Fold this sequence. Notes:
Layout: E1 7-8, E2 22-28, H1 33-47, H2 49-54, E3 57-62, E4 74-82, E5 85-86, H3 88-96, H4 98-102, E6 105-112, H5 129-133, E7 139-143, E8 145-146, H6 153-158, E9 166-167, H7 171-184, H8 187-197
Parallel strand pairs: 2-3, 2-4, 4-6, 6-7
Antiparallel strand pairs: 1-3, 4-5, 8-9
Helix pairs in contact: 1-7
Bound molecules: flavin mononucleotide (FMN).
Amino acid sequence: xxxxxxxxxxxxxxxxxxxxxxxxxxxxxxxxxxxxxxxxxxxxxxxxxxxxxxxxxxxxxxxxxxxxxxxxxxxxxxxxxxxxxxxxxxxxxxxxxxxxxxxxxxxxxxxxxxxxxxxxxxxxxxxxxxxxxxxxxxxxxxxxxxxxxxxxxxxxxxxxxxxxxxxxxxxxxxxxxxxxxxxxxxxxxxxxxxxxxx
Length: 198
Ligand SMILES: Cc1cc2nc3c(=O)[nH]c(=O)nc-3n(C[C@H](O)[C@H](O)[C@H](O)COP(=O)(O)O)c2cc1C
């Protein structure tokens, strides 16, 4: 699997009439699980049927690097959930770029081990800005992974009594979501980005 920062080109030639949409996948995690979900999502975006049809390209960048979303047509922002919250780099990214994200097609996801029913609507609300810049219907919850050998002593203590290492990630679900996102991207998204950066 390509590392963070990798860029995937279109798996098929761009659609006739010009360059396909460009999507930025930004993620925050501590122990690799969310990075792998984001990487799978980015790859599926370009390889899915819908992604290939429109010649979509995806860039994968950690939130700590604070990639500017302006040159992209759409953004997916995801974070692991710790203590019921998104991680600070994801919250900070959302707050820094809220105005740009509000003018882009933006999706978000949270990943953790609590079941969907035990978290508030929206999964989590990392920031009041989330409703403004993303909107509640474009948020997805993905089950994550816990790998005990990767945890700090403090984290192990915090999880005392929890089951040992588990991996509940739903790769098929990630792929399907990528296909939905690629299917939702329209030529209008490309136009709005070009207008913005002109
Ligand atoms: C100390 C600690 C606290 C956690 N708190 C939550 C939580 O509040 N809600 C949740 O759904 N998952 C929680 N998890 C599970 C992580 O979100 C899950 O393991 C996630 O997949 C980790 O992603 P990462 O490897 O990218 O950091 C916690 C895990 C640890 C180690």
